[in-house]
Design goal:
Number of strands: 9
Distance between the termini: 61 Å
Order of helices and strands: EHEHEHEEHEHHHEEHHEHHHH
Number of helices: 13
Length: 338
């Protein structure tokens, strides 16, 4: 493998719980430490994140770590600032609550050098964000096909070309060619970036041998906020790239729209009431059936109610966020037309 400097770029805000674990994982990479630098774009954290970074730097001077201020407090702005401050020919995008396997960078570079893709990533292994029955259920739900569909960076079992990866590794030339992250999108910046990579003729490569652990949300409330934001900003991203829509992204807003319509009709039309009961029963049955296998594998009966509850939270939050974003855009468009 040709020696090349790698800059790990990390958006960060109030990540005191995981930042040391991430930095330790980067220190433990099999790729030469003298060919790595870590650039953390911090959104002015108010917890002990910066204190922990400073302490880690002092204790491990062999790993180059720099912190830049992200006064815009958004992920795409943080990524662009980290890229600007970096010096590596290769950029590896990471999150502050993601823990890459020791050979993560080495394997990503091997795939890049083999020409398998212009942006390379692996499969996420979801860790529970809290040691509760809900936290464990959310970890299963956010990796389950019923929850995330055909998102290969969560479910792939063999390497291949895909539409997006969560934590991509790519050459600086890619950024020079297509531009950085779209700062108008607070969420969905990775998918939009990868859409432009694909439109420029590049490939997105995912390999399940490339592994990274990722902490899921600890409770249903934070999960709902997360997926509402995903849906809200997905619609805004699709207005830029409408042909990038995938079926897994279209189903939640269609499903939520159907449930809302049936709920409204059922107040005065008995057939709609019967159909709503049938759809709800079938939906719940599918979710429970899909939970049985992981519940048996993990020997946790609490997953049987927990995983369907988490998946429902994901579906309805994502779909509602998408529809709310679409409604706001339509209203603004109507006001603009007048």
């Amino acid at each position: 493998m040709e020696p090349v400097k790698v800059s790990v770029i990390i958006p960060c805000y109030n990540e005191e719980a995981t930042i040391e674990e991430l930095l330790s994982a980067l220190l433990a990479q099999t790729y030469p430490i003298d060919l790595m630098e870590v650039i953390i774009a911090d959104g002015m954290s108010t917890d002990r994140t910066r204190e922990k970074i400073t302490a880690f730097k002092a204790g491990h001077p062999q790993l180059t770590i720099r912190v830049v201020d992200n006064h815009q407090h958004t992920i795409p702005a943080a990524l662009n600032q980290a890229i600007q401050a970096s010096t590596g020919a290769v950029l590896s995008r990471m999150d502050a609550h993601a823990i890459p396997a020791p050979d993560y960078i080495e394997k990503c570079l091997r795939a890049l050098n083999a020409g398998l893709g212009e942006n390379v990533g692996g499969v996420i292994n979801i860790r529970a964000g809290s040691d509760t029955w809900v936290g464990r259920a959310i970890a299963v739900a956010t990796a389950h096909p019923l929850g995330v569909g055909d998102a290969h960076y969560r479910t792939a079992t063999k390497a291949g070309v895909t539409d997006t990866v969560a934590f991509g590794t790519y050459r600086r030339d890619v950024v020079k060619s297509i531009g950085g992250y779209d700062e108008a999108l607070r969420i969905n910046e990775d998918y939009e970036f990868n859409t432009r990579v694909r439109r420029s003729g590049g490939k997105i490569w995912v390999d399940p041998a490339i592994r990274v652990d990722y902490y899921s949300r600890p409770d249903l409330r934070s999960l709902a906020r997360q997926y509402f934001s995903y849906g809200y900003w997905k619609y805004k991203m699709l207005r830029r790239h409408p042909d990038s829509l995938r079926w897994r992204q279209a189903l939640p807003p269609v499903f939520v729209s159907g449930i809302l319509m049936l709920s409204l009709l059922s107040t005065f039309w008995i057939p709609a009431r019967i159909l709503l009961a049938g759809v709800a029963s079938l939906y719940l049955a599918i979710l429970v059936a899909g939970t049985i296998q992981p519940a048996i594998q993990q020997k946790r009966s609490s997953l049987i109610p927990g995983v369907p509850l988490a998946i429902m939270t994901m579906h309805f939050s994502w779909g509602s966020g998408f529809l709310w974003s679409m409604l706001k855009s339509l209203v603004k468009g109507s006001e603009h037309d007048r």
